[in-house]
Design goal:
The protein is mainly beta. Helices cover 0% and strands 48% of the residues. The chain has a three-stranded antiparallel beta sheet with strand order 4-1-6, with no helix packed on it. Strands 3-2-5 form a three-stranded antiparallel beta sheet, with no helix packed on it.
Length: 71
């Protein structure tokens, strides 16, 4: 996602299919390898980067917060 962290509404999760990804969430770095998954609230500062030389492929889902609301 570049050098800047993003904040937006909703929740998101990702599943890494191939390559590697670094996911920084609120300053904490998570290194993903194929088969790893991650879930986060999108209103927490976050960004993605590919530290490898190989293209990374992932399934990434973003949802609006009201989808999970019980109201």
């Amino acid at each position: 996602t570049g050098g800047h962290q993003y904040i937006h509404e909703g929740e998101e999760c990702g599943f890494l299919l191939d390559g590697e990804l670094d996911v920084e969430i609120n300053g904490q770095l998570h290194h993903l390898k194929p088969g790893d998954s991650i879930t986060l609230k999108s209103n927490v500062p976050h960004r993605l980067s590919n530290p490898g030389k190989k293209k990374a492929s992932a399934v990434w889902v973003n949802s609006a917060p009201y989808i999970f609301s019980t109201k």
